[in-house]
Amino acid sequence: MRIALFLALLLALTATLHAQDKKPAAKEEAKDPSEAITQKEIDSINYDNAAVDNGFVTPLAQDLSHLDDDRKLRLDEFTDKFEDFKSGQEKQVGQLVRNWMAVCTYGDLGRSEFEAEVPYVVFEKLKKDIPREKLIKALAWVIVKPKEGTTVTKAPELGIEDELDENEVRARSAIYAKKLLGRLVGKLPPKE
């Protein structure tokens, strides 16, 4: 009788453990939506509204050589805060890139003296940190799926305390994404 009871308990425990193995992990990583971007979608992107880098909207510095020592120091002080930017540590590459494109918009929306320089620094960071093919797909996702994912409309870690207009951040994020993607795929800057 004891042996039968012991075997029944052992069998029940084994079945319970086996059933737990089949359950999905409670916090399973969601698939990165940028991975679904196709080459056809990338090839269909029009860069016309991203071709001008020295305009009033979505400016982009070509480099940082124009900065004097004081301005370079102030820019470094700002970009040193990037390590503390929680949204800049996102695991999904597509969302990570969307978050950094939002940072590019902050100065453009009137929140920084470095509206053309911050996007340059962000672009250099992304090119260094993310493999080229993944970065291309992530940038394309920001462009062709502008309403997907979340967008960062304030970043206290970077000194952006006030909530920015989400639609403006999303629209300008897509333009900045075009500026970087265009450079990665050889479509920008325009050939003269």
Short overview:
The chain is an all-alpha fold and 192 residues long. 53% of the residues lie in helices and 0% in strands.
Backbone structural class: mainly alpha
Largest sheet, strands/sense/barrel: none
Number of beta strands: 0
In round numbers, the mean pLDDT is 89
Radius of gyration: 23 Å
Order of helices and strands: HHHHHHH
Number of domains: 1
Low-confidence stretches: 4-10, 22-27
Range of helix content: 40-55%
Number of helical elements: 7
The gross shape turns out to be globular
Strand composition percent: under 5%
Question: Roughly how many Å apart are the termini?
Answer: 92 Å
Assembly level: single chain
Descriptive report:
The protein has one domain (32-56, 67-184). The chain contains seven helices and no strands. It has helices at 2-22, 39-43, 69-79, 93-111, 117-129, 132-144, 166-184. The chain is globular, with a radius of gyration of 23 Å. Residues 4-10 and 22-27 have low confidence and may be disordered.
Q: What attributes characterize this protein structure?
A:
192 residues, mainly alpha, 7 helices, 53% helix
Topology:
Elements: H1 2-22, H2 39-43, H3 69-79, H4 93-111, H5 117-129, H6 132-144, H7 166-184
